[in-house]
Amino acid sequence: MEQQIQQLFDNAKQIVFLTGAGVSTASGIPDFRSANGLYTKDKNAEYYLSHRYFESDPDGFYQFAKDNLYFPEAKPNIIHTKQAQLTQQGKAAVITQNIDNLYEVAGTKNLVDFHGNLFNVYCEKCHQSVDWHDYLTSRIHQGCGGPLRPDVVLYDEGINQNNIQQSLDYLQEADLVVIVGTSMRVYPFAGLLDYRNRSAQVVAVNQQPLQFSFPFTMVQQDAVEFFNDLTV
Ligand SMILES: [Zn+2]
User: Fold this and answer.
1) Spacing, Cα 143 to ligand 1 middle (Å)
2) In angstroms, what is the span from residue 152 Cα to ligand 1's centroid?
3) Which of 90, 132, 144, 178 is most enclosed, with most CB atoms within 10 A?
4) What would the pLDDT profile of 78-124 be if each residue is shown by its tens digit?
5) Domain boundaries in the chain?
6) Which strands, in side-by-side order, build the sheet including 201-205?
7) 1-27+77-115+154-232 sits in which CATH class?
8) Annotated active-site positions, please?
């Protein structure tokens, strides 16, 4: 850990972490965009996670979700827990693209699940919430016979307005923006950077170098190592 970087964290009044799949892979959760096998031979994972597909082939959607998205045994790693500690100190917020619930398990406060959460399941017909264990047993709501679905943003659906507003509020308040485990290429999430406070410093922690059109500090390092070394 370079002293300068540690000082950025120490001196920050309010940090926002913008995070993605790279945070979860350290917990053994594969990035579903790179999911391979049967389903990805002729169509990409994005197609299998669209509402169009959910409606046209409910069994296929259900099977894809169960096989590629749900990892109920996964545990938070040091990246989650250090970020969660900073949020508990009232010093940080987290806006994540991840839908795996690990930030919740780590006790994160000030959290936006930008794309929703797999472990919140509801019936699309009667809108009742259902325990996710029940969903992994059957995709049909026992109460009304309607189709169950996880409360995640599918590829042809819009982002929840409250999540957008909360994200913009956190970004306006932050004087340090830290990008972790994402290359910030998927929109609309990537567009959040445009709404940062213009006085905020930006740091990116990533194995591969990232490029942006504004000045930022690139920490080319494994995120697990980085957060192991970070004193919070
Ligand atoms: Zn129902």
Assistant:
1) 6
2) 17
3) 178
4) 999 999 999 999 999 999 999 999 999 999 999 999 999 999 999 99
5) 1-27+77-115+154-232, 30-70, 120-152
6) 111-113, 92-96, 15-19, 176-180, 201-205, 217-219
7) alpha beta
8) 115
